[in-house]
Every structure is written in structure tokens, then in C-alpha cells.
Amino acid sequence: MKIEQLRFLISVVKYGSINAASKKEFVTQQSLNKSLSALEAELGVTLLNRTKMGTRLTEKGEIVFREAQRSEERFSRNA
Q: Which helix (H) or strand (E) holds 63?
């Protein structure tokens, strides 16, 4: 798990879609989606329900999202 993957997850939730998050993160949609898919594979859970209308966190995704936010806050304080 990489801090970048967690940042991408936070961004997708914040902006509501992979497309919007990829623009804010200055990466391609494919790159962001690949990174999130790798995170899901590593954790063995689906984090996001992806639709044409955007994305929503799954129950497991909610848990990982909250931990990602905490991790990002700790990382930012120590940087």
C-alpha cells in the first residue's frame, strides 16, 4: 500500500468520480483507476462501486477511507 493510493482514494471520494479526481491529481483516469484497483487487490476488497454516474464507497471502502484520511493527516503533520 502506498500513500499515493490512499491520496487517490480520498480524492475520488472528495470529487465524486475517477474522472474528476484524475484531473485534480494531474494523472490519467487509467493510471488512477489502475492504482485503486491495485489497492483493492492488495486488500482483497472492493472499495468503490464504479458507475457512469460516478463512484460510491462500499462498506469496506468507508473503513479504508476513514483510515486513509487519518493516515494523510498524520503524514501531513510529520512532513
A: helix 59-78
